[in-house]
Amino acid sequence: MLLQQFFEQNPRIAVAYSGGVDSSFLLYAAKAAGCEVRAYFIKSQFQPQFELDEAKNMTEHLGILLTVEELDVLSQPDIASNPSDRCYFCKTMILEKIWELARQDGFTVLCDGTNADDDESDRPGMRALREQEVLSPMRDCGLTKSDIRRMSEQAGLRTWSKPSYACLATRIPTDTILTEKELERIEHSENMLFDMGFSDFRIRLIPPDAAKIQLPDDQWNEASARRKEIVTALKPVFSDVLLDLISR
Q1: pTM value?
Q2: Torsion sign, CA atoms 165, 189, 124, 247
């Protein structure tokens, strides 16, 4: 199936929107195909503020209505306890809320930005997509991440080169209790590195109070040259800061 055919069969869709490369292109493609489309963004403790800001900017640029709903995912013990399948419980909670909002707006089809490269065996959240009857048109049409980046660039979408971003909960080891304080500490620390010009990195917690920075290979020299600056910024937040030399 071609993406255009999907839109012809589904001319009115709601989209679970993250602000990332894939779901942004899905919004663009649906709008370009003449669909009635609305985006739904769930702001939980796992999403940094910049993701919401970028989602608002993109939907405004595309002329698509965006619904933003706050959700306390840490109120769910199966999420806060941070098991290996945390993503399944979190995704289920989020999709149930989006379905509730979308149905109130009269939508009967909900889509997401999963692509053909996404490996179900490595993504517990994809089980939630099936159970919640969420459609993944780009995956069904065989579109890979590189396909979507290429078409996004051709369409002039500024998200075409946006690095992939995993939620803040992935910075904390499995089975370590998730708290709002820890998530805010990591978000604050990553924002400081963003402000220094670093990109596509992660700061991961080493319990109880240390952190390791994972950077792309081409930014190691920059990090080494600015070691004192990084330590000065992060030392008040973590007891120890390490540079992880193993690519993430």
Answers
A1: 0.94
A2: positive
